[in-house]
Structure formats: C-alpha cells, structure tokens
C-alpha cells in the first residue's frame, strides 16, 4: 500500500479520508498514473499500476471531490470518479480513455448507475432506438439528481448527460438542485448555456461561425451550411483524447457519404490553430476545418466531441447526443443513394 498526502490544497476544513483501488485495462505491466483533482486541475498523487491493478493508495483531502487519472505524461484524462470517505473501487480503460465503473462509496455507487446505463445501451445498441435510450438515461439521471440535490454529484450528473436531452429537459434537472447549487456560478453558467442551446436547438436555423482554415485564411460556416447539401459539423480539439479516438470513424463517414450529398466540417474548440493543424496532418483529415471560431457562445458547445447535422437549407436537424452509429442510420434515411 502507498500512503499519499494531498499537495495541492490549503488548510483543511475537515478530513476526508479516501482510499483508491481497482483495475486499469491497457496499462503497461509496470506503470503509473497521476491522480488529478478535476476542479482544481491539480495532481495530488502518483498511483502505481502493477499487472493491470492499482496499488491501493490513500490520503486526506478537505472535501469530497471529483478526480481523474492522467496517463502517460499528461496525454489525456481518464475520469471521473469521486474521492470521499471510504474506499473507491474503479475500473479504468486506457484504450477507451474512460472509467468503466466506480463503486464502493455512496456517491460513486450512484455515479456508477449513470455509467452502467450508458454501458448497457452501448452493449445492446440499436440506432433506431436512440430516443428511447435518451429517455432511459433521463430517468436514471433525474433520480440521481433528486438524491444528490445539494452535493457535487447532482450537478456533475447534469453536466455529463445534458447533451442527451432537450435543453428544456436539462433545465428541469437544474431546477431539482438545491437553491444553494442553483445560485452557484457553475449552475448559473450552465443555465445560461442551456438557454443558448434552446435558441439553437433542433428545428432552428443555423448561426454563422467565422474563423481561419488550415492555411490561415478566413473561413465561415456559411461557406458550407445553407448551400443546398447536408453538413455535419464535428466539434473537436487537439487536446481531446475521445475526439481523436473517434476521428477515424468521422473520416469514414465523410468518405462514405461525400458523394451522396454530405459535407463534413471540423470546428475546433478552445484550441491553438498550430496544435489543431498538427493533428489534422497526423490523422490525415481531408475535410475542411474552422479554427478560432466561437462554438461555445454561438451554439452552447461545452463538451466534445459533439456533432450537429444541418439540413440543406441550414436548419439544424439534430444535435442531441448524436452518436456516430445513430448518425449513419440517419444518413442512410436521408441519403439513400448517390445523386445522379
């Protein structure tokens, strides 16, 4: 066992004694990961991995908090889970860049209900049932929020699932939180963002974005959207591990449907053009890119990867939890054959 002390906090208001153990699929036989406080974005400890198992670690923090694991010199985070009093047991997957399960303490057990419903849907996925899946997720999240209306898990549950629901449904979840949390800066910003999302929800006309292309020249979303063909906007960033992991599938969609009337446009979020350009070259992305635009304040994009599908006239067709499997299913309906 490794006993670890927190190094990124000030004086403690109380003592939360945590312990972390579990498994890490895809790690090297002898490896190590940084334990990161996701709110402070601060490492508090190094956790060893031996033959796929975390060497149990423990320490003291001042309040229950969300944490992630940082793998291989800062290249992506694997999260999230809660450190609170007691033992948190996680299953992490380096290859999928995510936490598979997290159990052992009250908040982790309820957080795991959300992870489990997503895993269940993924295992039995049918793109024709996308709306039904979102209703299942909403029921679980609503129950979790109700039981954690005044702690970090209630707010976090809304944040990680909000794109699965309409903005009105997500706002209804926010209203289940305690007045203290609703009045927090984080939730007030989320409510403002969801209001912006309402204004750019499915059925609304697109709003233009302006940035630069891979050559540093001005480029606009309206160069593509509203020009008589379907357009898929892929919101991503060079620092986003899941975005890069899913990019080959986005590229496959582009190649499969570009001759059937689909245009794909990459739109980076909070990224430096030079960093994004390096990834475009490394991944071999051939569809156009818009760097340095404002997707957060224009479309309320706050989590990536995210996708918006636009109709030929510029109407937003879909933007709620648009999985790539569901996208292909929808495109098969919209573009049954190549135009003559």
List its traits:
alpha+beta; 10 helices; 28% strand; Immunoglobulin-like; 34% helix; disordered N terminus; five-stranded mixed sheet; 3 domains; Glutaredoxin; single chain; 340 residues
What can you see in these coordinates?
This protein has 340 residues and is of the alpha+beta class. It folds into 3 domains: 2-102, Sandwich (Immunoglobulin-like); 125-199; 210-334, 3-Layer(aba) Sandwich (Glutaredoxin), CATH 3.40.30.10. Helices cover 34% and strands 28% of the residues. It has helices at residues 106-123, 130-147, 152-161, 167-174, 179-182, 185-199, 241-257, 273-283, 295-299, 324-334; strands spanning 2-3, 16-25, 30-37, 42-50, 53-54, 57-61, 65-71, 77-83, 86-93, 98-103, 210-212, 218-220, 230-236, 262-268, 289-290, 306-310, 316-318. The strands form 4 sheets. The protein has a 5-stranded mixed β-sheet with strand order 1-6-2-9-10. It has a 5-stranded antiparallel β-sheet with strand order 5-4-3-7-8. A 5-stranded mixed β-sheet has the order 15-14-13-16-17, with helices on one face. The relative contact order is 0.10.
Strand content: 25-35%
Q: Radius of gyration over alpha carbons?
A: 21 Å
Number of domains: 3
- As a percent range, the share of helical residues equals 25-40%
**CATH topology name of the largest domain:** Glutaredoxin
Element pattern in H and E: EEEEEEEEEEHHHHHHEEEHEHEHEEH
Strand arrangement, major sheet = 1-6-2-9-10
């Amino acid at each position: 066992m490794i006993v670890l002390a927190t190094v990124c906090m000030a004086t403690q208001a109380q003592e939360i004694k945590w312990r972390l153990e579990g498994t890490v699929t895809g790690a090297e036989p002898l490896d190590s990961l940084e334990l990161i406080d996701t709110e402070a974005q601060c490492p508090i400890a190094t956790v060893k991995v031996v033959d796929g198992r975390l060497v149990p670690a423990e320490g003291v923090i001042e309040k229950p908090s969300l944490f992630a694991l940082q793998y291989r010199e800062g290249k992506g985070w694997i999260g999230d889970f809660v450190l609170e009093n007691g033992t948190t047991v996680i299953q992490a997957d380096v290859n999928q860049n995510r936490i598979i399960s997290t159990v052992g303490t009250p908040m982790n057990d309820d957080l795991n209900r959300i992870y489990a419903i997503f895993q269940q849907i993924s295992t039995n996925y049918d793109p024709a049932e996308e709306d039904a899946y979102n209703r299942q997720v909403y029921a679980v999240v609503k129950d979790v929020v109700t039981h954690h209306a005044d702690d970090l898990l209630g707010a976090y549950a809304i944040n990680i699932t909000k794109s699965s629901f309409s903005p009105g449904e997500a706002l209804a979840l926010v209203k289940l939180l305690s007045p203290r949390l609703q009045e927090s800066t984080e939730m007030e910003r989320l409510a403002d963002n969801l209001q912006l999302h309402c204004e750019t929800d499915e059925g609304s006309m697109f709003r233009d974005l302006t940035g630069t292309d891979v050559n540093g020249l001005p480029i606009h979303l309206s160069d593509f959207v509203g020009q008589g063909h379907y357009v898929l906007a892929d919101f991503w960033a060079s620092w986003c591990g899941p975005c890069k992991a899913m990019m080959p599938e986005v590229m496959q969609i582009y190649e499969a449907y570009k001759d059937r009337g689909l245009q794909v446009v990459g739109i980076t979020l909070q990224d430096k053009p030079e960093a994004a350009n390096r990834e475009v070259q490394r991944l071999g992305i051939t569809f156009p890119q818009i760097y340095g635009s404002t997707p957060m304040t224009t479309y309320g994009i706050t989590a990536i990867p995210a996708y918006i599908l636009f109709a030929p006239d510029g109407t937003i067709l879909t933007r709620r939890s648009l999985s790539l499997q569901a996208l292909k299913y929808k495109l098969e309906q919209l573009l049954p054959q190549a135009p003559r």
